[in-house]
């Protein structure tokens, strides 16, 4: 009788808890897992290894493109530099071909060639100035001869013909320069006799140019002479040419 009574008392002491459905427990478990695991808050983080691999591949591709672009720039720069050096070499070669041999003889450096080119240009400018002054002087002489000839009559002009001829011989770089000015009756003056006289003296006539202004004709003759010629030879040649011209005029 006593054991049965104790069993009933135990049943009265244990509280009654109603049984919950299984789906409620499963929902609570999922909720707990999601709260405890931060990956459930970021679904994209599940694919993070693949995304990292893609980023690495993109970085490598970008670096490869940069390397290719750098190599292309180097190739273009090398070609431009090669073309520039070739053009400069052609210009230096053209410059050397324009300079006389005595200016570049024994000089190989480009800086020396440039310096000698400047000297050559200055020398040419100086010669041009000298020739300009000589031309102006000749023009003044021919102008005075023209005024003297036009002031006289025909017989006076014929009588002063020998005096209207002037011969000037000047030394130049490669020989001598001969200037002969004649009056209006130039048909009595034979230029061939002067050229023949120069050949007899052993000279080589390089050029002969005639210019006429105000009825005055100026003949310019360039002739090569031996290297041992002095001012005495130049004066002697001038006198010989003058005598040859006067002899030719008197014979006419």
UniProtKB/TrEMBL annotation:
Highest rank taxon of the organism: Eukaryota
A single GO BP: regulation of DNA-templated transcription
Location (main, coarse): nucleus
Compartments where located: Nucleus
Signal peptide residues on this chain, from the entry's feature table: none
GO terms of molecular function: DNA binding
Short name of any one Pfam family annotated for the protein: HLH
One GO cellular component term: nucleus
PROSITE patterns according to UniProt: BHLH
Domain BHLH per the UniProt entry, residue ranges: 72-124
InterPro entries xrefs: bHLH_dom, HLH_DNA-bd_sf, MASH1/Ascl1a-like
PANTHER family in UniProt: ACHAETE-SCUTE COMPLEX PROTEIN T5-RELATED (PTHR13935:SF106), ACHAETE-SCUTE TRANSCRIPTION FACTOR-RELATED (PTHR13935)
Protein name: BHLH domain-containing protein
Organism per entry: Cinchona calisaya
Organism classification: Eukaryota, Viridiplantae, Streptophyta, Embryophyta, Tracheophyta
């Amino acid at each position: 009788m006593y054991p049965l009574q104790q069993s009933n008392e135990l049943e009265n002491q244990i509280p009654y808890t109603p049984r919950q459905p299984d789906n409620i427990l499963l929902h609570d478990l999922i909720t707990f897992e999601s709260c405890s695991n931060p990956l459930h808050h970021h679904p994209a983080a599940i694919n993070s290894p693949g995304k990292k691999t893609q980023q690495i591949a993109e970085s490598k591709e970008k670096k490869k493109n940069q390397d290719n672009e750098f190599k292309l720039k180097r190739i273009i720069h090398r070609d431009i530099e090669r073309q520039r050096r070739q053009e400069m070499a052609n210009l230096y070669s053209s410059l050397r071909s324009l300079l006389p041999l005595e200016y570049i003889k024994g000089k190989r450096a480009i800086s020396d060639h440039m310096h000698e080119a400047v000297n050559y240009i200055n020398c040419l400018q100086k010669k041009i100035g000298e020739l300009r002054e000589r031309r102006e002087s000749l023009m003044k002489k021919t102008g005075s001869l023209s005024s003297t000839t036009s002031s006289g009559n025909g017989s006076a002009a014929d009588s002063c013909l020998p005096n209207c001829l002037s011969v000037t011989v000047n030394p130049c770089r490669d020989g001598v320069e001969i200037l002969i000015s004649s009056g209006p009756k130039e048909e009595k003056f034979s230029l061939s006799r002067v050229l023949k006289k120069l050949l007899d003296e052993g000279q080589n006539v390089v050029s002969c140019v005639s210019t006429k202004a105000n009825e005055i004709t100026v003949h310019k003759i360039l002739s090569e002479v031996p290297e041992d010629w002095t001012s005495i030879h130049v004066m002697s040649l001038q006198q010989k040419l003058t005598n040859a011209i006067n002899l030719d005029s008197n014979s006419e």
